[in-house]
Amino acid sequence: MIKLRRLAGFFPSSGARQGPNPSQTTMTRIRIRAAEYEFIAETNPDAPETVAAFLKLLPYKQKIIHVRWSGEGCWIPLGEFKLGVGFENHTSHPSVGDILFYPGGYSETEIILAYGSCMFASKMGQLAGNHFLTVVEGKENLRALGVKTLWEGAQDIVFELA
Question: What integer is the mean pLDDT of 87-116?
């Protein structure tokens, strides 16, 4: 018979408060304007280094274009730009409204915004990026932005504190 023993902090005792430290769950709201659309995103507490480095860039203005290999997404190609972070909270499968930062390596540095079915990839194959922002308001307009970018080309995008 296998016996389970309680590991300190692993199996909570009844009545113990569990969950993340409230100071670690503070999320900053970011306003994103792209084409004629406006979105509000919240920072992801599971990517603290990426969030901190990105916040130093605000307001951040770029061009967003449609992805080439990843499916229904738009991206900001950043070439050799270095944000000074490594991988944290990284994924290849962003959900609608997830914004990832790829710190470079196999492909160029980039930011990708999923508006539909998406698997983050490049000509080198599957990639993973740090999920550092999530769109929480205006998500219903993400597909319209994606389609506009696909058919009309590069769009201006601005990230700023909300």
Answer: 94
Buried b / exposed e over 66-96, threshold 16 CB at 10 Å, is bbebbbbbbbbbbeeeebebeebbbeeebeb
Could you tell me which of 95, 123, 92, 97 has the C-alpha nearest to residue 108? 123
β partners of residue 54:
none
In this prediction the pTM is 0.82
Q: Which runs of consecutive H residues, i.e. helices, occur in 26-139? A: 48-55
Place of tokens 């909570």: 12
Would you give the distance in Å from CA 72 to the centre of its chain? 15
pLDDT of 6: 40
Cα 48-52-54 angle, rounded to 5 deg:
115
